[in-house]
Design brief:
The chain is α/β, with parallel strands linked by helices and about 550 residues long. The chain contains 18 helices and 20 strands. The strands form four sheets. Strands 1-6-7-5-4-3-2 form a seven-stranded mixed beta sheet, with helices on both faces. Strands 14-13-12-15-17-16 form a six-stranded mixed beta sheet, with helices on one face. The chain has a five-stranded parallel beta sheet with strand order 9-8-18-19-20. α6 (about 235-250) crosses α7 and α10 (about 335-345) runs parallel beside α18 (about 545-555). The chain is elongated and about 100 Å long.
Length: about 550
């Protein structure tokens, strides 16, 4: 297992996982001279953290499990790569003899971390494994270049690395959400970026350890840039690693054009020396600006297909209404909504299409676990009203739809809403005797429902049934005590799932209980005012792919 950052670190302004191969030493609070640097949006600047709320975290001896994966030698460098279970690993003390032999070996202590918000995506795990070898190699080449080259603009606070017993560096992979928070905290820039470099070197302290700092890389932004630049995610990650490493070694492309040119050249030299693909990040940023293809990360990027692999699901289940929610105004499921549902399913989230009023509930293997039928007297009265006033009525009985006469609105229920084609029964008695009836729907204009049907039947049912509306031009009569919310409760009990594990999306009044029950209830903007009043969030409309937007923005 590769190390993941603990909740303590995730809530702290200093994103850091410490892996140490030497004795921990007491260190003072860092001064405002500690710098963080990044690139890759025009507003990205090298900066100093806010001293008022800056704390330096040196976390050691935590008692958590750890494992030293590999130690190997390369000329005068002994590279020790650490990985642990979640949290921080214990301190390992170097033998006394090893501490006295710094002229023979310079120990490179590298920690590769995966932020807890990232799921166990195979490609990300593979990249983290490759970085265990790539990072020490890149450090060696960068240090050798410092000895063999002369630079005019580099900050020489780190001069001769050979004067240290060991050098420590951590590299963390995260998603846009995490790096965006860091960017906001340290730079007051409320957007994601590709890489942040966080120096922990304190000039003037006579220490045997060079704590180089931290490099934080958003693999989500890196994946977009890799696609735009025509190479792989590991290629882009290496480009970002080189850029971040050079910042920690004193290069800063933002102080002057000369400094920018010097760092740009050094990026190219390092990448070529390492045999890694891609241009340096500074050159790539120039190319992006030239082609007007520059990208600034935002939460909308989750709308891109495949982006959910950088996030863990927040919910086990998504309950989604059909009419007016998943279906747009043309009663179609958009391609965007279909892709979002498919991607959620691929990430292990179960999707329940909550249509109807909870009158019939199906559990595992499609087994019926609940059924509720309308009172026969209510059914008779409704049929007689329909016949006398020539208001079309549909009776729902299992998988059948029954009616008393032909009408264009009856046909629309089949052609638009894809309900079974209604069977015309010769009389009221024939309809009532055909089968048990779960619900009835009157079809009329929105005005006719509001002025005539709803007032009449709200009183006429007399507690024997409930009157509800999902859409303006239909009035539904259902058994008392039944609702979509009660059906959801029955299903959750059957599945052994708590309400905290579900997110619900709806639009109609019949969705109110379901939205209230869910840990997160989302009403689409095309929904009724009563529904929007109880929702936690009001999302985009059903004609604006509201379901997809809700999944990408809130489910992960």
């Amino acid at each position: 297992m590769l190390p993941r950052l603990s909740p303590l670190l995730r809530n702290s302004p200093m994103a850091r996982a410490v892996s140490r191969a030497t004795t921990p030493l007491p260190l003072p609070t860092l001064s405002p001279a500690t710098t963080l640097s990044c690139l890759h949006s025009p507003s990205s600047l090298s900066f100093a953290p806010k001293p008022s709320n800056f704390n330096f975290f040196l976390l050691t001896n935590t008692g958590l499990f750890n494992k030293k994966f590999e130690t190997f030698s390369q000329e005068n460098y002994r590279c020790t790569v650490w990985a642990s279970h979640r949290g921080y690993r214990k301190v390992r003390r170097r033998p006394e003899a090893a501490r006295r032999s710094k002229e023979k070996d310079l120990e490179l202590s590298v920690s590769i971390c995966i932020e807890e918000g990232l799921p166990n995506d195979p490609e990300i795990l593979s990249i983290a494994e490759l970085l265990r070898l790539n990072v020490p190699t890149a450090m060696k080449f960068a240090f050798d270049s410092l000895k063999s080259s002369t630079f005019k603009t580099r900050d020489e606070a780190i001069a001769d690395v050979g004067g240290f017993d060991s050098i420590e560096l951590s590299v963390m992979l995260c998603n846009d959400e995490f790096i965006r928070k860091l960017n906001k905290e340290w730079r007051d820039e409320d957007h994601a970026t590709d890489v942040l470099s966080m120096s922990q070197h304190v000039p003037g302290l006579d220490l045997p350890i060079l704590m180089l700092g931290d490099i934080v890389i958003s693999v989500e932004t890196a994946a977009r840039q890799a696609e735009e630049r025509g190479h792989t995610l590991i290629d882009e990650t290496r480009v970002l690693l080189v850029h971040g490493l050079l910042h920690l070694l004193g290069f800063d492309h933002e102080i002057s054009e000369e400094a920018e040119a010097e760092m740009d050249k050094e990026e190219g030299v390092l990448l070529e020396s390492l045999g890694w693909k891609g241009k340096g990040l500074i050159q790539s940023a120039y190319d992006a600006e030239t082609t007007m293809n520059h990208h600034m990360g935002s939460s909308d990027d989750r709308m891109k297909e495949g982006s959910l692999r950088f996030y863990k699901p927040k919910f086990s289940y998504i309950f989604c209404d059909m009419d007016g929610t998943l279906l747009n105004s043309k009663s179609q499921i958009s391609l965007t909504n279909a892709k979002a549902l498919k991607e959620a399913l691929s990430r292990g989230v179960k999707v329940v299409i909550a249509t109807g009023k909870g009158l019939i509930v199906y559990g595992r293997q499609g087994r019926e676990i609940f059924r509720s039928n309308l009172d026969l007297s209510v059914c008779r009265e409704a049929c007689l009203y329909s016949w006398e006033h020539r208001v079309p009525l549909i009776a729902f009985s299992n998988d059948r739809c029954l009616t008393l006469f032909e009408h264009p609105l009856v046909d629309l229920l089949h052609t638009v809403y894809h309900e079974p084609k209604a069977e015309i029964m010769p009389s009221v008695e024939h309809l009532l005797s055909a089968a048990d009836i779960q619900k009835m729907i009157f079809l009329d204009t929105a005005e006719g429902v509001a002025k005539n049907l709803r007032p009449y039947w709200s009183e006429a049912t007399g507690g024997r049934a409930n009157v509800v509306q999902a859409v303006p031009d239909m009035l539904e009569i259902v058994p008392p005590g039944t609702s979509k919310g009660s059906g959801v409760k029955l299903l959750l009990d059957h599945l052994g799932v708590t309400a905290k594990e579900i997110m619900a999306i709806g639009d109609g009044e019949n969705d109110i209980e379901m939205l209230e029950l869910a840990s997160l209830g989302i009403a689409l903007s095309n929904g009724s005012e009563k529904t929007k009043a109880v929702a936690n969030v009001i999302g985009a409309s059903n004609d604006e792919d509201g379901v997809a937007s809700a999944i990408y923005q809130y489910a992960f």
